[in-house]
Amino acid sequence: RASLNLQVRGLSPSATVAINERSNDLLAAGREVFKLGLGQSPFPVPDSVVEALRAHATRKEYMPVRGLPALREAVAAYHQRGVAGEREYSGDHVLVAPGSKELMFITQLAFYGDLVLPSPAWVSYSPQARIIGRQVVWLPTRADNGWKLTPADVDGLCRRDAGRPRVLILNYPSNPTGQTYDADELAALAEVLRAHEVLVVSDEIYGELHHDGAHTSIARFYPEGTIISSGLSKWCGAGGWRLGTFLFPRELQWLQQAMIAVASETYTSTSAPIQCAAVTAFGFGPDIAAYVAHEQAILKALGGWCHRRLLAGGVACAAPQGGFYLFPDFSGQADALRRRGIAGGEALCERLLEETGVAILPGSDFGRPFGDWTARLAYVDFDGAAALAGHDPAATID
Ligand code: PLP
């Protein structure tokens, strides 16, 4: 008799997907719900990208496993502009998949070694490791350091157990913390990662959505050891279209080749019409650049507004730097909350949803210890189309 594989026993649906379903159930039951749980972009897909999709709606053939050549060229050129350095990337360095989540998963299938994750980190990295039976090494970060990994953290880990092969997933701007790394911080991390030969999967899916200055990739400082992850889901507003991309340096072609083999035996290729539309998105013409600049301005205004409201309520929280998340820490309210029978972040999130309709997620879904008072808030429950048309979402929420 067939039974469950050990690795998936006790596995439940991803926390962000689960909160979305729960919020939808409550909405269907007539309750008012503020969906600050799922990191779903509120912005409509840019018009030119929708038009490209329409123009290719009848494309129905299987695509090359690694991705449509025109798309791979566009993705390479897109990153080339961002990475800035002597590196030359071409379409050969790109792999396309139905979502960067899928690419993360097949990376985990393909490499040999430990997975190193800063804590907190995005919800799915660690369950993916668990499904595959891979060891996760958590590197806790601290609120007073903006939840950022330091070179000393990485160096300490690598020296403790020298010689172990390791892959670090570094995500910035970060889901869940909303923090990002500047060029100096990335350069310092790169030095240590190179010294210990730690391979980096640089999850830059929110790279366009920084609030200030410009986004820098760690690949600029450590090109030979860095894979850059991106996709349409966040900056292009098209999570449900399912398209993610990885950019590999030539030194990591061995990993890319293995992943292509896995892809060929699993998802085969990514939707043909979506890939054709993605050529326009990654082509990053003036209309896309203007669209992204609008997104940045709106998210900056809204994130800043939510942050100020939290501080005004006495809740500790780092100022948002990118993406669309805040990571408040309610430990200052812990005594008062305990008196109301709320023992930690998990209970707090449940009670918030039940009593106020506000859906947020506890920090423990992101690798923080169970019972800790952090939570993730996604400030995306507004009409993105209206915001792009000039209506201030912060004013609407007020
Ligand atoms: N990485 C991070 C940090 C994310 O927040 C998400 C989506 O929420 C993903 C990856 C997955 O994105 P995709 O839609 O490309 O699978």
From TrEMBL:
<dbReference type="InterPro" id="IPR050596">
    <property type="entry name" value="AspAT/PAT-like"/>
</dbReference>
<comment type="similarity">
    <text>Belongs to the class-I pyridoxal-phosphate-dependent aminotransferase family.</text>
</comment>
<protein>
    <recommendedName>
        <fullName>Aminotransferase</fullName>
        <ecNumber>2.6.1.-</ecNumber>
    </recommendedName>
</protein>
<dbReference type="GO" id="GO:0008483">
    <property type="term" value="F:transaminase activity"/>
</dbReference>
<dbReference type="InterPro" id="IPR015424">
    <property type="entry name" value="PyrdxlP-dep_Trfase"/>
</dbReference>
<dbReference type="InterPro" id="IPR015421">
    <property type="entry name" value="PyrdxlP-dep_Trfase_major"/>
</dbReference>
<dbReference type="InterPro" id="IPR004839">
    <property type="entry name" value="Aminotransferase_I/II_large"/>
</dbReference>
<keyword id="KW-0032">Aminotransferase</keyword>
<dbReference type="InterPro" id="IPR015422">
    <property type="entry name" value="PyrdxlP-dep_Trfase_small"/>
</dbReference>
<feature type="domain" description="Aminotransferase class I/classII large">
    <location>
        <begin position="32"/>
        <end position="367"/>
    </location>
</feature>
<dbReference type="InterPro" id="IPR004838">
    <property type="entry name" value="NHTrfase_class1_PyrdxlP-BS"/>
</dbReference>
<keyword id="KW-0808">Transferase</keyword>
<dbReference type="Pfam" id="PF00155">
    <property type="entry name" value="Aminotran_1_2"/>
</dbReference>
<keyword id="KW-0663">Pyridoxal phosphate</keyword>
